[in-house]
Structure formats: C-alpha cells, structure tokens
TrEMBL record, chain A:
Gene Ontology annotations of biological process type: GPI anchor biosynthetic process
Origin organism lineage: Eukaryota, Fungi, Dikarya, Ascomycota, Saccharomycotina
Keyword Nucleus: no
Domain of life from the UniProt record: Eukaryota
Region feature (Disordered): 1-33
Transmembrane intervals: 38-57, 69-93, 114-143, 149-169, 189-208, 220-240
Species of provenance: Nadsonia fulvescens var. elongata DSM 6958
Pathway the protein takes part in: Glycolipid biosynthesis; glycosylphosphatidylinositol-anchor biosynthesis
Compartment(s) where it occurs, according to its Swiss-Prot or TrEMBL record: Endoplasmic reticulum membrane
Record field: compositional bias (Polar residues): 1-14, 24-33
Family assignment from sequence similarity: Belongs to the PIGF family.
Protein's recorded name: Glycosylphosphatidylinositol anchor biosynthesis protein 11
From TrEMBL, chain B:
Protein name according to UniProt: GPI ethanolamine phosphate transferase 2
GPI ethanolamine phosphate transferase 2 C-terminal domain segment(s): 428-891
Species this chain originates from: Nadsonia fulvescens var. elongata DSM 6958
Subcellular location as annotated: Endoplasmic reticulum membrane
Functional pathway: Glycolipid biosynthesis; glycosylphosphatidylinositol-anchor biosynthesis
Top-level division of the source organism's lineage: Eukaryota
GO CC annotations, alphabetized: endoplasmic reticulum membrane
GO BP term, pick one: GPI anchor biosynthetic process
Protein purpose: Ethanolamine phosphate transferase involved in glycosylphosphatidylinositol-anchor biosynthesis. Transfers ethanolamine phosphate to the GPI second mannose.
Swiss-Prot/TrEMBL keywords: Endoplasmic reticulum, Glycoprotein, GPI-anchor biosynthesis, Membrane, Transferase, Transmembrane, Transmembrane helix
Gene3D superfamilies referenced in this protein's UniProt entry, alphabetically: Alkaline Phosphatase, subunit A (3.40.720.10)
Membrane disposition: Multi-pass membrane protein
Keyword Disulfide bond attributed: no
Length: 246, 895
C-alpha cells in the first residue's frame, strides 16, 4: 500500500485525458483510454498484492504462526479486493453476453451499488471457499491434519480468484463454463484468477526440498504461489488486453 | 515398411540403453583399494613385544561366542520396550557392556558381516550381491579378517545359523549348520535350527570361536513390522539363549558378544540409512567387565534417535576382538579399539601396545591411499610447528609425526585414530569417469533416436509434443535434488493432478459436461495416493494402510478384500473364462479366485496380521493337520497354475482359431481377458493391506477410459482428420499410462530407498531357494502397480468397444478401411517409443546426477539406490514388461 503514491493515481490519469493533443480523434481517445486506465489499475493492484504478500504476510511472521497471520490478514485482503473491484474493475471488462442494455445499466450504476455488489461477491467468495478447500484436498492437501491451515489458505485463494470473477461476471453460466474450461479471452481479472490457481499448484514444488526453512511449512508456499500468480496473471492479462487491436 | 523401421528403432534404443547401463555401472560402482595379504603384528617401539600377554596370563579371553541377531535394533535390547530382562540384569550388574553400533549403509546382512569381520566400509555393490546370493565374488578369501586370523592360529571355529557366513568364509568352519536366510515367512524353524546345537556345544567345549546367527527377528520385522506381536516373544527367546550361554561363560574364560548386524526402519525393512536401520544393538558379556565399574543402567527410556549408551562404529569391534583374543588386527580395518575396555589391561605398557598396533595398522592404510604419508619431511615439520589451521590430512600427518616416538599419550592416539578412521571411510572411491561419460553418451544416442520418432509422429499435435518433452526434462532435472529423489512420489502425484486437470480443461472445452469424468479420476487418484505414506520425511504419518492394519479395523479390511475378490471373480467369469460352457466357466473362475483368497488369508494369519474372528474357523479348517508352509506353497502353486492355464487357454483360442475372417476368431477382447486374469495375479502378489487398492485402481481404469472417450472422441472437432485424431488418443493414453505406473508404484508403499523393497511375497509358491524364481517374484511383488498399468494401458488403447466402433465408422466413411490395421500397429510401436523416451531421459537424469554429484554427501545413500531403481525400471519394467508385452501381442497378431 505504501507503494501507491509512486504510481500515478487514477485521478491524475483521468486528468491527463484532458491534456491530450487535439489531433487525436475523439473515437480514438475513447477506445484507448479505458485500456490505459485498466492497465494502470492493474499495475497498482499488482503492486498492492505483492506488497501485501511481503508486508502483510511474510514480514508479519507467517512462518512462526501461519494460522494467526492468515486470519489477521483476511480483513485487509478483503479491503484490497473490494477497493480494486469498485475502482479498478468498473466497466473495464466487456462482457461476452448481454451486450447493449446490460452495459449501459452498469455504466449508469452508482458507486454505492458497486459497493454492495462488491460486498456480495465477497460473500460468494466466502461460500465458495469450501469448494476451494475441497479442490485443495483433491490436489493433495493433507486430508486429516492441518484442516485450519488448508481452509484459511482456501479462503485467501477464493478471495483472490473467485471474488473479482463474481463481481465482474455474476452468475452467467455460459461465461462460467468458459472460465472453467479456460477459454475466455485474457483480461486482468481472468488472468489473475488463472494465475492464482497455477501459482498455488506450482507453489507445491518447494515443499519436499530438504532446506528445512520455516517458510516451507504447509501452506505458506501454496499461499505465496497464489499471491504471486495473481500478480503475474493480472499484469499478463492487462498487457494482453491492451495489446489487442480491437 | 514403416512398422519394421520402427521396431528396428526400438531395438536400437534398447541396445543403447543396456550398453549404456553396463558401462556406467562399471565406471560408477567403486572398487576400493584393498590391501591383500594377512595382517601380522607391526614392529613396535618396544622391541620385546610379541603378544598382549601380561604376566604369562595368556590372552584376555581364551574363547569367544559371537551371537548375531539379525536386524536387532538398539532399542530391542536396551529400551524399556524390550523384552530381554536377563540381559538388562547383566548390564545393571556390570557384567555386560552395551553400545549402539552404527551400521554403515547399505544396511543389509552380507555387507554388514563383511564390515564386522574385516573392519572396512562396505562396497555398494555388496548390497546387490546380498540379493544375488549365488555370486561367488563376494567371498572374503582376499580380505583379511579376524575369522581368518583365528583360523591361521589353528583355532577351532563352529558356526550355526545364516548360511551367508558359509559363503563368505568357505572352509573356515570345523562344524557348520547353515540356514537359508530367504524364507522370510519362517519365524521359528530358522532359530530352532541354531538353538538346538547350543547345549551340546556348551557341554563339549571343543571350539575356540562359536558363531551363532539368528534370523527369526529379521523375518518378523519384514513380515509384521517392528511392533509385530511376535517381536516380544522372539526377544524373550533370544534372552533365554543369552542366559544359557552366560552360565558357561563363568566356568571357562569366554567372551560373549551379542550384536545386531543392522537395525530396521518403521516398516520393519532395512537397507537404507535411516536412524533405525543404522542403529544396531551391541553388548559385550563377561563377568570380567564388572571390574570396569561403568555403572550402566538398563533398561533405558525409548529414544527416537535410537542412541543408547555410547555410539560406536560396528568396525570398532574388529580391533577390540583382536586385542581380546590376542591376534593381529586385520590389515584393512578402519575401526578403533573401544576405549571403555582399555582399563581391563593392568599395565600401561600393554595398553600402549594395543593402541600402537591399531594406530600403525591404520597408518599403513593411510600410506596406501595417500602415498608418502608415513615419511615426514622437513616442510611438514615446519607446517606442524606453525600450528595453523590445516586440512584433515595434514593434521593427521602432524599427529602421526608426534606419535611416532611414543604412543604413551592415549588422548593423542585416539585423536589420530578417530580422525584417520573418518577420513579413510570417506575416501572417494576411484570412479572411472571415462566409462561413466561413455555410458551417458550412449544414453544420449538412445534419447535422440527415440525423440526423432516421437517428433515426427507428433509434428501436427504440437501442444502434446511440447508438453511431453517439457515433462520428461522436468523429471530428469528433478533427479539432481537429493530430497526430490527421496520424495519422488510427490513429483508424480503433482504431475498426475496437473495432467488430469489439463485433460479436464481440454475435454470441457469440447463439451463442458464431459469434464466430470476427469473430476472422478482426480478423486480416485487422491484416494489412491492416501493409501501408503512413502518417502523419507513423512513415512510415519497416518495413512489408510496404517488404519486398516489396526486390529480393530481388521473386519473392515477383510470385507474390503472380499469385495475386491468378488469384483475380480465377476470380471474373470464374465470375460476371461466366458468362452467355456457355463458351469466350467463359473467353476474355474471360482476356484482361481478362492484359492488366491485362501492363500492370502492363511498367509496373513501365519504372519501374525490381525484377522477377524469370523474368518479364523475357515482358515484353521484349511490348514488343519498340515504344516502351514507346505499348505501355503501348494495353495500358491495351485493358484499360479490356474492363472497360467487360463492365459494359455485364452491365447490358444487365437492361435487355433479356424478362420481368419470370422468375426469372433478369438482375437476379440483378448487383451481384456488376459488383463483380468493378471489382475488376480497382481492382487495375489500384493501386501494384504494393499489389496482393496485394486477396487479403486479398477474404477480409475474405467473412468480414465470413459473420460478419454468422452473428451476426445464423441465430440471431437478434429474427427474428420482421422490420422491426427488417432495420434492424440495414442499420445494421451501412453502418457497417462506412464504417470499412473509411477503413481501406483509409490502409492503401494515403494520408494527410492532399498529398504522399501518388500520380500514378503517373493516366496509365494517357492519351497527351495531359486534365484531366478525368487528374483522374478520379488520384482513382480514390488512393481505390481507398474505391471498392472502396462497391461491396462494396452487394454484401454485397443479394446474399447465403443471407441473401436466409432473409429471403424469414421474410417469407413473416409474410405480408409484398410488402414485400421496400420493405425493399430502404429499405436503399438508408438506407445513403446513414449515409454522408451521417458526411460532414456530418466536414466540420463539419474546418471547425470551421479556423475556431477559424485562427491555429494548422499551419493551412496540417495543417488546410488535411485540408480539401481532406475535400472530396474528401465531394464525390467520398460524393456521387458512393456516392450515385451507389446511385441508379444503384435507377434501373435492379436490386434
């Protein structure tokens, strides 16, 4: 969070729009600017996530007491996710289905309703965390021991990947089918979600190594993998989206 | 033509692999510098010295009884858990002195006996020779040892017990009764064969050295683990033997040494380097020791590091025995005289002489390893006087320089002895690097041949090609990490989840609902991997096997086993024997399955595993009046022959089928029928607690086949491109097969440690030791999982009715009818190439790791066992079983 002042704030970016040379046609400006905006929001979010992983989890001593630190970190990650949803994700992701009317309603929606839908997506993420827990066990998390550790890890993963997805896509079964079969075109939100899962899968690699470091204990590497994956996924998604022609 | 070219390629790859293995092994496995000849007393500073004889009293002990109890871990004789009260009372009186003797890996009997008698550190190849017993190169004819020393002095040596001794010391013993060490299911007879001689021998006293080697405790460990109910009974039996021996010690001047040759790990096996395996118990027993006043207390509380009293090296026995019996120290000994016993000699002069002999003997080995060690030059003197921090070898030289004039200072002598011993035991064995590199080059050639075929085969399915190459390279790289080798199962479980998820994603893109089958596969893999905890770090953690092995869950276990056998019966009745008339097919299936079931039940009962009460009647009715072992052998033989007959019958139906064009000419479902028969065989070769695993393996096999069909056939978009579509199927089934082979191998409790080799099913149906038969059964009982998937993969690939029907339709539609056969032959050879490419790269990884890390601390404990495992995988599993099975089916033209 301490890094955010160094990155240009969204307001300054918005102000810059007015200063652009007049030679740029109006249609061009309207098509490039949301992309730039989205890219900048994604970068800010990435910085915050990495910063949070380092300061909020590792510096706070997750190696000494994973359960306590993961629990303490929950309100903060919820705050980050809600802020990112309201500020960064509003109208950034164009939806596949429900083209015209839906978009316009979302454009016109007030900040307060955005806030409630962000909260609602947090609630969904908390409910879905049980499913995530099941998936973690299926992928090899200990089945009979460390249940609290695994569940807290699942909650973090759910907040990182499920919450923004629900905020953006709600319950659109077609889109969710595409999400699960990894067919949706990349964008910052989807990139983050894929990154979370890929990161936590890759995070299992250091566990069997005999370095005997405190951070090798369950589930720190998985959690760190999820956070790093989210950060990388967001950047990759944002870059991919802004590099696309249409 | 393509087919012939492919099989020439396969042949070339296998030849390269075998030659590479042979060369690499020749260069890698060490040949230590061994001094030949016979040790004599070294000339000492005291020129009058000839023996340790003090005041004309003769040697410290006139006679010795050397009692080896196989696999006797330190806690079995010293801890409060042990059931050896007499020995404990002797320790408390001071008449016995206890030690924990460190047994150097590989912790198996033959190398350990070599170590205990010669005082050398073992040669890694001894571990293999321990299994290949008939090898004659393992005698100690050229290596000096205290048995030969005694023989030279015309002492009479009697030996009763493990016949390994007879192989190691031919013509040394004046009276012998050997017992074979390989019938692990025999707990009592092996030991009675030893004990029955004792009374007679103690009465006659016509020996100077008596060796007793008891095997029962080791067998109990292998069968029932360290906490088997038979363990305390056996310990009491050993205690009683010690008691009867002790009474005679007091009469004559005899020393009794009770020693374990190695320990055992948490599963009751040994061979590796864990704390339990390397901590053997050792006790010196004689009333003379009371005057040492060591005040040892016994029993002690159990310790997880198995350290009771002082921890010494097993080789330390050698100079100690030499001093006790007044013989020269064997010439290659690295052991150090046990300091606790030094005060037994009254004069300082004798004590100095004992240490001087030990020091001179070790200095002699130093000289042979590092030429010029004994000649101290001026610059060395300057270096020593400068008293700087110097390397171990320089330090040794300085110590030796200060010792040469006088060996009076005990502390300096011990500093020298201990440092020299540790330096020499670590001396890098002389690798022949050129052989190793040439072996690796041959493997590179094998890899290149195999990859060119795979590359051209998968040139239009790039994503699978990239995945496969990335995967095998990742595996090869992981072989460079010692903990990744120890915990290799994690790699496979991790890869399996990744692979299934990837297939899920690919499948659900085509039709979302079909993904659910992959999900079920994931669930089944999760259950299977929970069955046995393996590896080094967490092998003691709770798992399904440990739960099922509890006495309280024996009913559940046996109900699951009965369910497994019912499903097996159902499958062979409906498939394998279904061509026979109704009553015969039912009867044959029933007899086959029930004989295997009773075999497993009687074996479980005989080895002391918990068996539910309601089954006892049936078991006892079955084994009434006959010797249990005979019963087991005949049951197993009956079962093996009925399986063999079933398979033979099924193959002959093809060979003798009258017409080639007949729709059902015996080829239909041939692999399936054989597969179900071999399933029963694999169940029979598994540990009792692993049998229910086959229920889940069967489900996994079905779900994998269904998932592959659903995701890649029914709604495949590329169905018009028949060739590409068939390639995808072949690739996916082959890779899934390789992954599942490894997952199941580890899930059945195997690991990359020699200790996890399970011998409990290696003697099924064998009544006399036969190296080929026992070797084959050992392989088949440890590689059950991989073999299961070898044949299951073939079945899935070729005999899936629905898929075959669809493929037939497509091929007819595109007028490719004649090429169906061509495609099937492609499938056979390409499946083999996937396996061979994997095995070549895997071997390349392990060999590379062994070459690069040849000075690594864990080279003999982690990488060398892995090298042996990868050889077994490549040569036996992949080249013989996988390739052989494919070739055999191709030759019988069963496709």
């Amino acid at each position: 969070m301490s890094k955010s002042p160094t990155v240009p704030s969204p307001q300054s970016v918005l102000r810059n729009r007015g200063d652009r040379p007049v030679s740029v046609s109006k249609s061009m400006a309207s098509s490039t600017n949301p992309k730039t905006k989205s890219l900048i929001y994604s970068l800010i979010y990435t910085a915050m996530i990495i910063n949070f992983l380092w300061v909020g989890l590792f510096k706070a001593g997750i190696s000494q007491d994973p359960v306590r630190i993961m629990t303490q970190a929950l309100p903060f990650i919820v705050l980050i996710q809600v802020m990112y949803s309201i500020v960064g994700l509003d109208g950034v992701v164009s939806k596949r289905t429900g083209t015209g009317p839906k978009k316009s309603t979302q454009m016109s929606s007030q900040n307060s309703s955005n806030f409630f839908s962000a909260l609602w997506s947090v609630v969904i993420a908390i409910i879905m965390s049980f499913l995530v827990f099941g998936l973690l066990v299926l992928f090899g998390a200990p089945a009979f021991t460390y249940s609290t550790h695994t569940y807290l890890c699942a909650l973090h993963i759910s907040l990182l990947s499920v919450q923004p997805m629900f905020y953006v896509y709600n319950f659109d079964s077609n889109i969710w089918t595409d999400i699960i079969s990894v067919r949706l075109p990349l964008n910052p939100v989807y990139g983050a979600s894929v990154g979370t899962w890929l990161g936590s899968w890759l995070g299992a690699i250091p566990i069997p190594l005999d370095w005997d470091r405190p951070w090798q204990q369950w589930p720190i590497t998985i959690l760190a993998g999820a956070y790093i994956g989210t950060a990388i996924g967001t950047v990759v998604g944002a870059l991919y989206k802004s590099s696309r022609k249409t | 033509m393509i087919l012939i070219r492919r099989w020439i390629g396969i042949f070339a790859v296998i030849v390269c692999q075998l030659a590479g293995i042979a060369l690499f092994a020749r260069g890698f496995f060490p040949k230590k510098i061994i001094l030949t000849g016979h040790g004599t007393y070294f000339p000492t500073n005291d020129t009058t010295f000839s023996t340790y004889n003090e005041d004309g009293e003769g040697p410290m002990f006139d006679k010795m009884i050397f009692m080896v109890v196989d696999a006797m871990r330190s806690d079995y004789i010293f801890s409060t858990e042990s059931n050896m009260p007499f020995l404990h009372s002797l320790i408390n009186k001071g008449c016995a002195v206890g030690f924990t003797a460190h047994s150097t890996p590989p912790t198996v009997t033959l190398p350990r006996i070599k170590g205990i008698t010669t005082g050398t550190t073992p040669n890694f190849l001894d571990a293999i020779l321990n299994i290949a017993e008939s090898d004659s190169s393992s005698t100690l004819a050229n290596q000096d040892n205290w048995i030969s020393q005694l023989k030279c002095q015309n002492k009479r040596i009697h030996m009763f017990g493990d016949d390994t001794w007879i192989k190691l010391f031919p013509n040394h013993f004046d009276r012998v009764d050997g017992t074979a060490s390989f019938f692990v299911s025999d707990f009592t007879e092996v030991d009675n064969n030893v004990t029955r001689h004792i009374d007679h021998e103690l009465k006659e006293q016509n020996w100077d050295l008596m060796i007793l080697h008891y095997l029962g405790l080791d067998h109990i460990g292998h069968k029932g683990g360290p906490t088997s109910p038979f363990m305390p009974i056996k310990q009491k039996e050993m205690d009683d033997v010690i008691k009867s021996l002790y009474t005679s010690l007091e009469k004559s001047n005899t020393l009794l040494i009770v020693a374990g040759d190695h320990g055992m790990n948490g599963a009751g096996n040994h061979g590796g380097s864990s704390a339990g395996e390397t901590s053997a118990g050792l006790a010196f027993v004689s009333p003379k020791f009371a005057k040492l006043k060591l005040h040892q207390k016994s029993p002690l509380l159990p310790r997880s590091d198995f350290n009771y009293y002082d921890r010494i090296q097993q080789s330390d026995l050698v100079p100690t025995i030499a001093a006790f019996l007044d013989i020269p120290i064997p010439i290659n000994n690295l052991g150090v005289f046990i300091r606790d016993f030094l005060p037994l000699w009254k004069t300082k002069k004798t004590r100095t002489l004992i240490l001087e002999q030990n020091a001179r003997e070790i200095a002699n080995i130093l000289e042979s390893n590092f030429a010029g060690f004994l000649t101290v030059q001026i610059e060395d003197q300057i270096m020593c006087e400068a008293n700087e921090d110097y390397a171990d070898l320089d330090h040794l030289k300085c110590l030796w320089w200060s010792l040469e004039d006088s060996f009076d200072d005990e502390n300096t002598v011990y500093e020298f002895l201990e440092l020299a011993s540790s330096v020499l035991s670590k001396v890098a064995s002389n690798y022949v690097e050129s052989d190793m590199i040439f072996g690796i080059v041959l493997l590179c050639i094998a890899t290149i041949i195999a990859s060119t075929y795979i590359f051209s085969f998968l040139k239009d399915v790039k994503y699978l090609r990239n995945f496969f190459f990335g995967f095998v390279i990742l595996y090869a790289v992981s072989m460079f990490g010692s903990s990744l080798v120890e915990e290799e199962h994690h790699f496979w479980y991790w890869a399996a989840t990744g692979w299934i998820s990837m297939l899920y994603i690919i499948g659900s893109r085509v039709r979302f609902r079909d993904g659910i089958n992959w999900f079920f596969c994931l669930v089944l893999v999760r259950i299977i991997r929970e069955w046995n905890q393996t590896g080094q770090k967490c092998s003691g953690d709770p798992d399904i096997t440990k739960y099922l092995s509890l006495t309280s869950s024996s009913t559940l276990l046996w109900l699951l086993i009965i369910m497994t056998y019912c499903s097996l019966f159902d499958k062979i009745w409906r498939n394998s024997f279904s061509r026979l008339p109704g009553i015969f097919s039912f009867g044959l299936s029933f007899i086959t399955v029930i004989s295997s079931f009773f075999f497993k039940a009687v074996m479980a009962y005989e080895s002391g595993e918990p068996v539910p009460k309601w089954m006892l009647n049936a078991i006892e009715a079955n084994s009434v009046g006959t010797d249990a072992n005979d019963k087991l052998v005949s049951l197993a033989r009956f079962f093996f022959s009925s399986i063999g007959a079933g398979i033979l019958y099924r193959i002959t139906t093809v060979v003798w089928s009258p017409s080639q064009n007949n729709v059902d000419n015996g080829r239909y479902h041939l692999i399936t029928d054989i597969c179900y028969l071999t399933d029963v065989f694999f169940v029979n070769q598994s540990k009792t607690s692993n049998i229910p695993l086959f229920l889940f393996l069967g489900l996994l096999r079905d779900f994998l086949a269904k998932a592959i069909n659903r995701s890649f056939i029914f709604s495949s978009k590329s169905i018009g491109d028949a060739g590409r579509f068939y390639k995808v199927i072949i690739t996916i089934i082959s890779i899934t097969g390789i992954i599942m082979q490894h997952v199941t191998f580890f899930a059945m409790g195997n690991s990359n440690s020699l200790a996890s080799i399970d011998l409990s099913n290696a003697y099924n149906g064998v009544s006399e030791y036969n190296i080929t038969l026992v070797g084959a059964l050992t392989f088949l009982s440890n590689w059950v999982g991989p073999c299961y998937w070898s044949i299951s993969t073939l079945m899935t690939m070729f005999e899936d009715d629905i898929r075959n029907l669809i493929i037939c339709e497509i091929f007819t539609k595109f007028k490719l009818k004649n090429s169906i056969k061509k495609y099937k032959e492609t499938a056979f050879s390409m499946k083999v190439f996937f396996t061979l490419l994997f095995s070549s790269v895997a071997m390349l990884g392990v060999m590379g790791a062994c070459l690069v890390l040849k000075h690594h601390l864990f080279i003999w404990t982690v990488f060398s066992p892995k090298l042996l495992y990868v050889f077994a995988w490549s040569v036996i599993q992949f080249s013989v079983v996988d390739v052989g099975l494919s070739a055999l089916l191709l030759i019988t033209r069963a496709i």
